[in-house]
Specification:
By secondary structure, this protein is an all-alpha fold. It has 18 helices and two strands. The protein has a two-stranded antiparallel sheet with strand order 1-2. The two termini are 40 Å apart.
Length: 442
Amino acid sequence: MSSNHWSNRISFIITTSAFAVGLGNIWRFPYIAGESGGGAFLLVYIVLMLLIGIPILTIELTLGRMSSSTPLIGFGKLTKHSWWNGIGWLGVVGNLLIMCYYVMIMAWVAIYMGECLSGKIPNLDSSELPDHFTSVASNMGNVILVVFAILVLAAFIVNRGLQSGLEKFSKWMMIGLVILILGFAVWASTLHGAIDGYRWFLSPDFSKINMQVIISAMGQLFFSIGVGMMVAFAFGSYTSKKDNLVTSASWIVLADTAIAFIAGLMLFPIIFSFGLSPDSGPDLVFVTMSSAFGKLEYGQWFGGVFFLLLFFAGFTTFLSAIQGLKDSLMDRFHLKSHRTLLLISVLIFIGSIPVVFSYADEPVRFFGMRIFDFMDLLTNNIILPLGGLLVVIFGGWVVGYEKIKAHLQSSGGQFFMGTFWKIMVKMIIPLAVLMILLNGLI
């Protein structure tokens, strides 16, 4: 049984929202929205958020609370068959592998923050920025050193305990993230040409809405809320039986979507005001946005604050992932907290080294891919969608929709009522997650 408990429901919502809000909210969602129909895509995304995002997160949180355990033993407790714990193991392994390359990306963000504040990035010509990113990523010794520092900081915070560590720091970083991103968005709205960015991001174009765009929207929603990593399962086990998980999950998904939306209102006015091309992923923040900062009078400060914002978004996710991993292993093997935390930190550090060396002149390749690309494909295209599919099937069919509904009703959850939601939970949502899995494999 989990010995951790949230200090209150608000802390649970904020901390879980901080876990959901990650790098993808900043560098992936806005671009997908702008490229896939703007306002029309946003409308589709909101519908999917209501029909799929909130229910699937609610299911994982509910399973955690029903088991009163973390995922490595919780699935077995709910069925009296320990082999169902394999679902938990799949998510925990996926979580661990993701953190091995996620921490490298955070190291890049930290390095760029320092280089912006020192004035180095803003003084580079736009044509030099792609090569500069390559030089930063390929400076393996420096990246590994920053990775080590991030792990030490994360371990220090998580070691303080759930309420004094993760809860406390996630709250402050989430508040800081919201203030910074809102401030940036307001400032961006004053730029000449901001209207062009809004038009690209928000103008509805329903002709672009097709099945592939819908699957892409489902995938973004699915990965953004972190289903399949088993962190939500662990976090659900910390909640009070009195907490309404349906409204909590609704607030979490809404906060995650709001941050991603505001990120678009922040990024694209800046990009279009300086005549740059919108992009996605690392190129968006390390090349395109860095080029914009070079054109600003106080570019080094704007750039430094932007990368601080990005670091907050990534670090809150990283902290939550480590908390979930630590508690899961402690629950399963009855280990002491500091030893478990040390073990996880060492595993992530060792696992990050071959990922960092993906940017060496002659990197080791798996199936023709760099280790970074291989791990990204393995986790995001296979492990997480498969884990999410198994969670939904487990909840709807193995534990059973009626039991989940009764559990939610006992704490005031009225969302999962009637035949419609029974069909959604048992049929439509599993098919939607299966489509995400198949789309990633094709």
